[in-house]
Every structure is written in structure tokens, then in C-alpha cells.
Amino acid sequence: MCGIAGIFDGQIASEEYPAVLDRMAASIIHRGPDEGGALALPQLRAGLASRRLSIIDIAGGQQPVANEDETVHVVFNGEIYNHVELRHELESRGHTFRSHCDTEVIVHAYEEWDLDALDRFHGMFALAVLDTNRHRLVLSRDSAGMKHLYWAQTDSGLIFGSEIKALLASGFIEPQVDPAAIQLYLSVAFTPAPLTGFLGIRKLPAAGFLVADDNGVREGTFWTPRYSTDTPLHSEHEYAEEMERLLRAAVKSHLAADVPVGAFISGGWDSSLVAAFAAEQTSRRLKTFSIIFPDAPQADESRYSRLLAKQLDSDHEETEFRAADAPTMYRDVVRHLEEPNSRAPVLLFYQLSRAAGSKVKSVLAGEGSDELFAGYEWFQSKVSRMAHALRPITPKALARLALPYARGARAHLLLGTLAARDETETDIEWLRCMSPTINSALIHSDIRSATPDLRLLLPHQETIDSYRTYLDRLLSLEQHGRLADGILLEADKMSMAHSLESRMPFLDRSVVEFSMRLPSNLKLRGNQEKHILKPLTRHLPPEIAQRKKWGLQYPRTFNASMSRSESARELLLDSPKNGGILDRDAVEKFLNDKDGLNERSAYGIGSLVLLQTWWNEFIRR
Fold first, then answer.
1. Which end of the chain is more exposed for a tag (fewer CB within 10 A), N or C?
2. Domain 236-374+487-545 has CATH 1.10.3720.10
3. How far apart are CA 205 and CA 186, in angstroms?
4. The whole model's pTM is what?
């Protein structure tokens, strides 16, 4: 696990390259505190830098890594879980290896298969390949979107990095607000790729790549998710057996490390299954971590996580989260988060990662299961079913007239869906967290004038064309948007803030592709979410196997305290009357709306607090 950065087609003096690379690498040292490496090639107007968190081949995995004649150089952040199989295939084709690290596999795979190599890498990664013979830079991000990679085209050259900090540290670009991205953030609570919130700074989408050479810059996609329509018929039992086999294999590959690997556990099915299979397959006593809520007993899951830890005989640690901790955490959290993003409980990710990062370098987590196997309650909500049934018979014009008068999240979701002109607009409405009316009122007029590209929220057309059922459509929206650019961004940034690598077996390519050929009735059946996982829960304590899903989320008391928080009011109302990001008068009215101080507006207040903190940290300064 590392942080990477670099420059290509630089328009700076030769002697400046080492200093620029040093600044970029120093800004992300938390991603790789163990060692650093850099390669400056002024004659090619290029350079690479890396900070390393040593997990595999500690002695021989220094970066950048080159081929034998030093014409191909690679820096890499992540893990390639099938690197041993790829190594054997490449050796059979005549390639010679000098180390056991997965980074060197990328070098030789690129030599052998060029860009086609990207689709062969099963893992989580953000990588950069510098091909000196072709004066070419290749950047890419893994198919699920677990790792992130940013880039910008500047007057001084193309720059890239694992974090936005690296780009800002280059000195080639000044932080400026991207109004369209901010509008999208307030609508859906994250910034979809390629947007970041910063004007001119872009992030690669999941499964995306970029090629820069003497012909310019082009982007593409190396893998597109497709739902299978020609799956051979299997019994439910056979599907469950395959699910268990694939998940066990994914957990085993994700345990590969030369250092101890721990696990996050919440007491739910996903993290519990990952931890249970890890405990069976590791030679070390598993170290487990969970978060507890002492001032919110109704949300506390410690009873279940302790039951699991006892069954696994794990070395278990708990860390506390209290609502009173939030004001002191926001600035550090936003500094590491870098993008406006409130789609997941980022403070909880941060607190849990801080506790684990002080003990281990890598943890297994259960992210991805809900989006693959229908683990969210809204997939079976009455609002969803009603909207789907009423859309064909409801006059859209009537729904649009009623929409401004909708009160409450469910009413707005229902009317917004019924008012949609087509399936594309319907999909966008399902992702919306804040209504356009509230969004427009709260944002400053300078930013309000921008027109966001709402189609960025939608999956690839090839994915859309492969939908078999309505559930496929809902799951695809979650995977493409909220998961890749919301949840996984927060998971990566919060863990790496504490030099901790978070591995996610449910997002192994084999499990993802299995989920896309699994019939919908084995994902959601009646009121049972993630039906395919039910047979696997025999490996868990009965209390966990029988409990209803409860995802990692802020306690309701936290939402209530946010709506009454004096620190939140002070932060939001301290914004300048002119030249800020929010309309201060509208925000004050929103805060004083006694009828609106419910859970929905508390969620909105949290999004505003994060946005204002982001603006103060990166733009206002």
C-alpha cells in the first residue's frame, strides 16, 4: 500500500524535478510512512514518486520498480491479489523477476499485454506506468473503485497523485471551487467522477485509465460491469455453495501479507463472515476492531461484535464514538477526505481506522456486500415499489406541480420519481438526498448559476442495456455512484489517514461477477435482504445470524444533536456574506426552521457543515 505522485510532459527547468517530486511525496507521507522513492527524468520531462507502507515483500518492494533495461517504470498503490498466478504466466513467457512484490508483476504485465494488462489485475489499485521508449504515461484505477487517483493538466505539465494534496503541493495549481461539482454534492452527498469539487482537478472513474503521450491525453475504461442473461440454471443450494467458495477464496487472497492483518467487525453479516473466514485461514490470532456508542445504547452493537470475537477467539478492541467528539474531528477528517462527501458516516470510519492503525497495518472489511446483494432497506421500501408501479399511469405534469409542496424525504422521493420524464431522470431521482429547491436556496448565487451534469451519476450504457430486473437497476446505481465515489472514497481516505490499508473481499472481481449473474430473487426475497448470504450465517453466532440488518451509521441521537449544535451554527453562520460557498441568509433560515429540524434536515446540516469545513480548509484559507 502506497501513495503515488508524478509529473509528465513537464514544462519546468531540469533542476526543479526532484524538488517538485519531493514536495508531492511529502504531502502524502501518511499513506506510506515506511519509505519513499522517486525517479526524476528531466530529459523526458517526467518523474515518479512513491511513499510506501510495507506489507508484501518488505525487503524487495521499493518503488519505483523498473524492467530489466529500465524503459518501463511503475509506481503503484494497492494490492494485486492474483499476482502469483500472473507471475507464473509471465515467467512462462520469458520474463525474469528480481523480487516477490506485486508491483513488479505490473511492470512485466504491461510489457507483455500493454493496456490489456489492466483487465487482468484482480485487486485494488491506483497505478502509474512511465514508458520511456514511447514517451507515454498510463494511469489507472481498479474496477470497483477502492483506490483513487487524481490528475490535472496545467501549464507546467500533467500532474497526478493518490490524493489532491499531492497536486496542490506541486505548486502548479491553485485550489478553486468547481461550482457544478458543488451542486452535485448537495444533491447526492458525493462528487461523482471525474469531478472532485476542485476546478481543473479530476479523478479517474472506477475501471478507468488515462494515456498521455506525444499525441495528447485520452481516457478509457478497461472493464464494464454487465448483468448476465445466459446464466445456466442452478439450484439455490448450488448458488449458496458457490458464494461461500468464492468468498472464502477472496478472504484467503486478501490475507496475503508479510505483516499481521486485522478485521473490522460490526456484528452484522458482512464483516462477521469476512472475519470468521479470516480467523479460520490465518496462522495468527486475528485482531478485531469495532466501534461502540456509549451515549446511544439503542445504536450500540457491542453485544454482537463481542459474541463474534468470543467465537473467533480474536484479540478484540473497541473504540468509542460520542456526539461530543464531532466538532473537534471535522477539520482533520475533511483535510484527509479532500472532497465534499457525506454519503457515509465518515467520522465513524475515521475513529475506527485511528484505533486499528495504531495496532496493525492492514484490515479486512465488509464493504461492498450491500451494493452487490441488496442489503439496503430502501431496495424493498414501499416508496420504491409504489413509485415503480405508479410511474406508467401517473401524469408527469401533475407530479411536477405537486413536487415543490412535498414535505419529508419519502414524499419528495415518490413525487420526484413520478415526475421524471424518462428512466434516466428516474435513476437520478433515486440517488438524490436534497431536493433541487433546497439545494438552490442554500448555495451561493455564484455557484448556483452552474449547470451540473447529472448524467455523471449514471452507469455505462452497456451496463444499463444488460439489466434483467428492476433490482438490477437499483443495485447498479448504488455500485456506480454511492459505492465507488462515496463509501469507498471515505473508507480509503480515512484508513490511509492512519497509515492503514483496508481490504474488501466482497469486492474481489470473482465475487462481483458472481453477483451480476446471480438471480435477483436470491438477493432480495420478501423482507430478507442479501438472501444468498443466509445459508452462510451458520458459521456465525445464532444471535448474529438471526438479527435484522443494521449498517454502520450515526446514532439517531447524533443526528438530533447535529440539528441543535451551536458549533454547527457558528461554523455555518460565520461564512462571509459575499464570496462564500453558501447563502448565509438562506442557511440561517434553514437552521431556524423548527418544522424542519427532523432527521432529514439534520442530515442536510451535516452535509452543509462538511462543505463549509471543506471550503474553509482548502479554498478560504
1. C
2. no
3. 20
4. 0.93
